[in-house]
């Protein structure tokens, strides 16, 4: 009759015979073991620590990031930065240069690789980080420090908070009586061009672009001999708020620099909406728009110079929007 020790030994032998042979690379990584009898306790001296260095191996993106100096002093990498996003996450690429050129030409998430049927952890974390940035862009406020540096006073629309701004867009197009009085009292009237700034759906866009674009527009218009109104900031504003401003100040052309709805590609996109003699209730087709103003689209300085030229054309044609194309 077999003893319990013999039965255990036979079972262990059968189990070992059913296991596939480890690959050479796996053999290198496996820890060394000593033969231990089943009928006695394991001695501490018989346990050899496993070489865990392979667990610390870096991904291709991490290796390139550290090589290019994209990691900070603590070795952390900003996975949302354009430089890191430009690094392919595929492990085996036949034409890496070709893939990098493709990635450079589109904000789409290509070359991200996979782990079985799922996205890689890096890809998923980047996706969630971009989504968080988009949410922050909508709900955060433009810093008062920036508005003070730009010497902009603030006027709020009828929206009491961000929730009402998102659920009642109609209230973001109109001002309370005291708001209109503030605009009329602090701004010059009967001007050629009235420029103002609004957070819209992305305060991040205002933070990222305002200091580079607003001075360019104002100085460019003044250089053309145009009378420019007093710039200011509208909180919780929609595009059509410009219509009330135009009527209140008797502006020939009104231009609003507004934060656009953020996406997963960028949360810093700004647009300039421009209208000739805007009036309340006018059709949207009468507005001219310059969009995609951000560091990876149209740079703010370049956009500012272009907006000056567009406003000049609108004044010469005495029309904006689709009427400008006729």
UniProtKB/TrEMBL annotation:
Keywords: Bacterial microcompartment, Cobalamin, Cobalt, Lyase. Belongs to the EutC family. It catalyses: ethanolamine = acetaldehyde + NH4(+). GO terms for molecular function: cobalamin binding; ethanolamine ammonia-lyase activity. It comes from Frisingicoccus caecimuris. Binds between the large and small subunits. One of its GO terms (cellular component) is ethanolamine degradation polyhedral organelle. The keyword Mitochondrion does not apply. It comes from the Bacteria. Residues 20-41 are annotated as: Disordered. Its cofactor is adenosylcob(III)alamin. Its main location: other. This is Ethanolamine ammonia-lyase small subunit. Coiled coil: none annotated. The basic unit is a heterodimer which dimerizes to form tetramers. The heterotetramers trimerize; 6 large subunits form a core ring with 6 small subunits projecting outwards.
